[in-house]
Structures are given as structure tokens and as C-alpha cells.
Amino acid sequence: MLDLLGDWTLADADGEFRVPMQLPGDVHSALLEAGVLPDPFQGRNEYDARWVSERDWTLSRTFTLGDGEEPGLLAIDGLDTVAEVRINGQVVLKAASSFREHVAAVADALQAGENRIEIVLKSVVRSGAELRAAQPYPVPFHARNSPIANGNMLRKPQCDFGWDWNIALAPVGVYGRVALVGEEGEIGTVMVRQNHEGAGVRLSIDASLRGFAAEVADYDIEIAGTRTNGWVDLSAGEGRLTAALEIEAPELWWPNGSGPQTLHELRVRVGKAVWTQRIALRDLKLVSEPDDVGRSFGFRINGSDVFARGANWIPADALPGRISPEKTRALLQSAADANMNMIRVWGGGRYEPDWFYEICDELGLMVWQDFMFACNLYPSTPDFLAEVAREAEYQAARLAHRVALWCGDNELIGALTWFPESIENRDRYLVAYDRLNRTLETALLKTLPEANWWPSSPSPGPMSFGDAWHDDSSGDMHFWSVWHEGRDFEHYRDVKPRFCSEFGFQSYTSMNAIRSFADEEDMNIASPVMESHQKNQGGNARIVETMFRYFRFPKDFETFVWLSQVQQGVAIKTAVEYWRSLKPHCMGALYWQLNDTWPVASWSSLDYGGGWKVLHYLAKRFFEPVAVMAIPGSDGTLRFSAVNDTREAVSLDLDLLAVALDGTSRSLPSAQGDVGPDAAVTLAEHPAGLLQPGEVLIYRWRASNGTSGSEHYAPQRYKELKLLPPKLRMTTAVVGDSLQATVSAEALAFFVTLEANRPGRFSDNAVTVRPGEDVTLTFTPIDGDTAGIELTVRDLYSSFATAG
């Protein structure tokens, strides 16, 4: 194999620019590196960078073939999007999808000695417009989300054209490999299927083989001490290897918090070609059945029902050339460290590379995989659907053993009600949607008959087109009433979803991220720069209006940013704790969203670059596999729900303290109880009047498995509390490669948050500090250097008070 990644030259069709470019990479990043383009993430530079998507760009390089070198195939992965590939002037490949690998026969175009390869990346703006004009009837896109038009015409990440959290650049490039395959051939896609019976598993292997000069080759397959071998026919120059292995009593893989994440190396050799991957052996089923309420929705792993704790994943960067395994691993590690066990790969982004899914397996993260359709209407012409079928078959074979659930799309059923065209002629667009959805289902199940398939998200279930934004009885739900409809946080307790796969509340990105794109003069949420980094229409106003309801207004810009994150954390905590207490009625909560593609106000719990917002620290606590939640009733009662997401029964002890704002406290009746595996029970329930005026509740629990926790419950909104100056004091000491900070208070202090001037992570944050009970937090800088670290401490009282 001849690897053609590395140094290329980038030129535009107008002859204005000619700069070096590294592959894998994207055109915007290459122009930025060459000094042609200012950083589109800074200030308002985005709007001066969109011209790039309006031009055709050519990538070129030369390579040399020695005597006797006769590669027959060109393989390109991550080719984005409408492209033509030439070798020595001869067109060898035309592509129109970034969502599958492209392989072409190239032997006739090659020559001994020097060869020239060119990849022409055509303007996605012009290509989208041409395709739209060719449609037999209008196919609208979500213009409010996507300021660059017609992305729905192209098999390309939909958020590249803009979203209500993403910059609109429509980048193009090549993000995978570019390789010439020699006569020894290669193993292409390897589909791995599992059939678990009793303690054993039958593993079926189906591998595509290509480029082999030999007519027959020996093969060898090995995993978990089990091996099979034989011969495979390659007389056509390509072929398929199918084989099966019986593995007796293997060590199984479990989600994060439910057991070990054992991976077994699978090695497939055909002739001299070798393919290896680490495989998770697991029996993973979607359980969705009619019941007395409606239709259930949940996941059963190795025979155990598991509550899905997690978040939605969007691309790791708006510029694909900046995405790397190292940066992505850090984001996914943060998900696992916050006790998540599922990631939903959202349908407006991209199918991730193999290494993404292997990282998820390593970390115990189940993957809900959307097919890449989101929030638009789509063509249903034969050529479009044929391309979609090829995409689905390719991804199903590649990711067969990686995916917990295959979902047809994101919010396409709802999109039928968003456009005048589909409202006026629902039948036409419903039929078009059905054709697309059936194409995906047919291609998936033809390739992977046992796949866990779900038609859309949200969806009440197969063949149901109901309003799953407000119907909590069946299937998976997207619950956006609190954010988009401006409802109170308490409204989260008015619904009882079977599985909530999207819900969220915005906050501003942290000050370190803001300083990366804004100057001091821009530090105002209404400044043009800050508004250009808020892509949700009305988002700033909604953050502010909600803050008036729950908190006293902050005293300055930096405090406003922090308080928006506290507010976001309180919102999501309210939802997750209540829905977890409903188990097994509700079996999953995936909040929107885990990460950001660039520094922007959004629903994420991780800043662009991976820093933890307040929400992520709270998520680490409210997603603990064993936890206790205080659930208030509308009649003033207070219920304490104990949740156990592990496979072993636990015993819990619960202590309650009524605490006045000056820190004085009185003990309330304690409680004890047992919670079975994967269960939720009520430990205690108290009538109205448990707390006296001016008191809040501190509740602490200890579990027999060694876990423990502490939280507070405020019976009234925080703005109504007559907080006292806590007079926080902080002392620090270097311990190894970390900085240890101990915080004390003279009055009750809420959401005590430490911020550092350097990238890193705290052991915990946004904690409650009582007089006489110091709290020690540890900060570990990413670079391991503790010199020069400065810490800022914030709390609720100091967010509005100018002294004390």
C-alpha cells in the first residue's frame, strides 16, 4: 500500500491562491495556516470566511512508482464532498458523499516513474443550488439553522452549513486516508456479528477483500484464544471472507458503572494483509414493547436492564482538520468521568472514524448512532436514495459490533410541520420521508438483520408519527418545553418520559474560552462579537429572562457568565434526578449536549477545548450509579429516592440536616433502606413543613458499596434566600502535580466554584460550604505544571453582592 497522506498543494479555480496543505485536513485550516484567512473563530471573522465554500479547490501532489509496482486500486475515506479525482489527467473517481469510502480501479491511469494526482473539491454552495434546482418539487431546508443554503441536498454534515450552536463555514477537504492498494491486496470492511447463547458467543465474520493479484489466499482469524483458518477464493481480484468462531464463556463487556470494559483483539489475516481491532463481546438489545402506559424504551446488556446516563455528541470541531484522536479521547474521557454510559452520535454531524468507537468501547460508553439526517426535508429521487442506501450499507457493515442503536434520523418527523410546503401538502412530504426512512431500514437490516433499529428520534415507535416532544408515554422523547417554550425548571417534573434522548438549557462558554475570541471591549452579552457567538435566535434573552426568575441579577459580566452555568446545571439536575427516580418507567436521560464545535454560547457541558462547565461537575454527581435524590411534590411533600444502577444490591444510610443561612443546623430523622440491582426505591417521604422559614436542607448518604454523596435542597428560589456574606477563605498547597485548595465559610455558601487561569480539571466544583466544614478541592493542570496557577473563587452571594 502506498500512503498518499501528507504534503499536498491547495489551489483555487480562480488562480488566486496556491498554498501548502496537509492531508488529512480541510481547506479553511490550510488557508488559515498559510496566512490567507484570519481565524474564523475569533471575533466576527466567520462572516469573512464564508467565501471559501463558494469556490472550487484542487488538491494536488506527485508520487513515484518504481519498476514492478502495480497498484490497482485507489481508496479514499472522508472525501468531503462533491469531488473528482484525476491521476495523470485521467478522471478515475467521481464522488458525491462524505459518508462512505470511495474505491476506484486506477491501474490504467498509472505509469512507471512520476505520477500526478489531483482531487477537485467542488463548491458545495454551487453544488447544493444545482441539486435543489433539479428537484421535481421544492425541498426546503432549515434556513434559521443554516445560513449557508441547501445543505440538505448533499451527503455532508448538516451542521457544516451552520446550526443553532455552530459556525457556518461549509468546510471541504479529505479527513481519512488516501492510498494506493498494491497487488498484495487489503482487507476492507470487516463486519462482526455476535450471537450470544448461554455463556458462549458465536462470532460471525464477513470481510470484504480487494486488490489481490493472487486467485486464492490462506486466511487466519483469531480472538480470545479461539482460532479458525482456511482458504478464500480471490479469482475475481476481490472477494468476501465469511467465517464463524465459537467462543466459550468469554469475559463480557459492560457499560461504565455496570462492570468491566473487557476488549478482545480480533485479528484477521488474508495472505499478507492483516486487519486488527479490539472487540467488545456483549449481548446488547433494545427493549421497546407495548405496556399499560404506552411503549417502553430501554437497553438490555448481557441480560441486565441498564439506565442510559449520557449526552448527545456533535462533531469535535467545526473545522474537521483540527479533529484528532487525542482531543476526541479527552472529550469522551470527560463523559466517562462524569459517570456517563451512553453517547448519542447526533444525526446532523458525521459518522465518526473507527478509533472514535473503539475509545467509546474502552470507556464503557454505549453508542446510539443516528443516520446523518437532521431537522430538514430531504430529496426522495432515485439517485439520492441509491446513494443513501450505499451509505447505510457501508456504515452498518463497518460499525456492526460498535453500535447499541441505529436511529433513522434526528427530528425529521417534526420537520414535516416546520415548513409551509410540507404543511400545505403533508401527504407528498410524508411519502418522501417514508421512502427515505424505508431506504435506511432496508439497507441496514439487509446488511445487519439483527440490528437494533429505531425509525427516528424522537419517535413514539415504528409507524407512529405523533408528537414525541410532548407525548411522554411511548418511545424516546425530546423535551424542549423548558428552553424553547420558556417554562420553569419545575416543569421537568410534569413529564414522565420512557427515555429522554434530548433536553437542554443554554449557558455561556467559560471566560477562558471567551477570551480566546473576544477583547475586553466585547465583554457584554449584547456586543456584536458576543452576539455572533450566540447562534440560537433569542438565546441570550432566554438566559437572562430565566435568570430573573431564579437568581438575583449578577453584578458584572464575568459573574453573569458563571451564573448562567449554575443556572444551566440546576435545570438539567432537576430533570435528571426526577427521571432517574422514575426507573424503570424511564430508562434513559441523554442531555443536549456534551461538547462544542467552537467557542459559543450553547447547551454543552464541556467548553470548546474540553474544559468542564458547572453542569459537567454537577453531572458527575447526578449521574453517580448509586445516588439519592430529593424530589419535591406539588403539595409540599419531599420524597427521597434512592437509585441503584449497578448489578449488585446496596444498602443506604441517609442523614438529613435543616440548615439556617448562618450555618446553624438541626438534625432531622435519618433513613435507611436496601435497593436491589438496577432499581429505584423511596427511602423516605416527609410531609410539608419539614423545614422552617429560612432553612435549607442538606442531605447526605452512604452506600454499602463504598459510594457516598452530599447535596442541598432549597425549598424556594435562590433569589428569595436572604443570603449572608459567607466571607470565603481559601488556602492552597501543592501536592504532587496538583494544587490543593481548601475553602472555609462563615455562613452557608452555595455553588462555591473555583476557576483556574490554566487548562485543567478540579476534583469537584460548584459545592456547598457550611461554617465549620471546610471543603478541599484539587486542581490538576493538563500540563502538570503547578507554577503560576491562579484560582478565583465564586459563590452565589458574591454573584450579586459588591462586598463581603
Q: Which geometry do the CA atoms define?
A: globular
Number of strands: 45
Which structural class do you get from the secondary structure elements? alpha+beta
Query: How far apart, in Å, are the first and last alpha carbons?
Result: 68 Å
Note the main sheet: 6 strands, antiparallel
The overall average pLDDT, rounded, is 96
Overview of this structure, please?
There is one protein chain. It is built from 15 helices and 45 strands. The radius of gyration is 28 Å and the shape is globular. A hairpin with a 4-residue loop joins strand 37 (695-703) and strand 38. The strands form 12 sheets. A 6-stranded antiparallel β-sheet has the order 3-2-5-11-8-9, covered by helices on one side. It has a 6-stranded parallel β-sheet with strand order 28-27-26-25-24-31. A 4-stranded antiparallel β-sheet has the order 1-13-6-10, with no helix packed on it. Helix content is 19%, strand content 33%. Helix 3 runs parallel beside helix 4, helix 5 (382-399) packs parallel to helix 8 and helix 13 (557-581) packs parallel to helix 14 (614-622). The longest helix has 25 residues, at 557-581. It starts with a strand and ends with a helix. With 804 residues, the protein is of the alpha+beta class.
